[in-house]
Amino acid sequence: MRAKTHYSRTPLHETATEGSIDIAEILIERGANVRAQSDDGRTPLHEAAVRGHRRFTGLLIERGAYLAIRSGRGWTPLHEALYQRSPELAAFLIVSGSDVNAKIEGDFYPEYTALHFAASRGRNKLVELLIEKGARVNVKDRSGKTPLDLATTNEIREALIQGGAKGQN
């Protein structure tokens, strides 16, 4: 269960891509590492998040996957879920304890937080959930933009302002 492809992807990485719970359970029972990172720093949790596999994500978290682990491009599984437009999975990761204030550490969407993604993509309910879970509403990305600057709906602007956001938009 420690075998890897030429990109250091494990069988569990490949299974996460497909979302097969039954196979994942067998692999984990036989010693597959739920925290294994590929050459690009991605874990099975990143793979499941990219594809919106909620049940698979839950299994990995239950078996000890790190919510805060970053890929080689500096993204957490929560960033991946938000980028891939998987609001249900993003909400699951948030309530499971993901760091809602983690900033992207790479050059693709540099210093974006989950709130930047949710505000810029019109995800009203996620914005409200993030604020409820302690997301900093005045945080700036590398270009100096706040979630309020990126808000796409009046409802999001109102939620951010009620949450303490300052500035004009």
What does this structure look like?
By secondary structure, this protein is mostly helical. It has 2 domains: 1-75, Ankyrin repeat-containing domain (Serine Threonine Protein Phosphatase 5, Tetratricopeptide repeat), CATH 1.25.40.20; 100-169, Serine Threonine Protein Phosphatase 5, Tetratricopeptide repeat, CATH 1.25.40.20. It has helices at residues 11-18, 21-29, 44-51, 54-62, 77-83, 87-95, 114-120, 124-132, 147-150, 154-162. The radius of gyration is 17 Å and the shape is elongated. The protein starts with 10 loop residues before the first helix and ends in a 7-residue tail after the last helix. Keywords: ANK repeat, Repeat.
Which properties best describe this structure?
169 residues, Serine Threonine Protein Phosphatase 5, Tetratricopeptide repeat, 2 domains, 10 helices, 0% strand, ANK repeat
Tally of distinct domains: 2
Could you say which structural class the secondary elements and strand pairing correspond to?
A: mainly alpha
Using the alpha-carbon principal axes, give the shape.
Answer: elongated
| Series of H and E elements | HHHHHHHHHH
Task: Give the name of the CATH superfamily of the largest domain.
Answer: Ankyrin repeat-containing domain
Q: Which spans have pLDDT < 50 for at least 5 consecutive residues?
A: none
Keywords: ANK repeat, Repeat
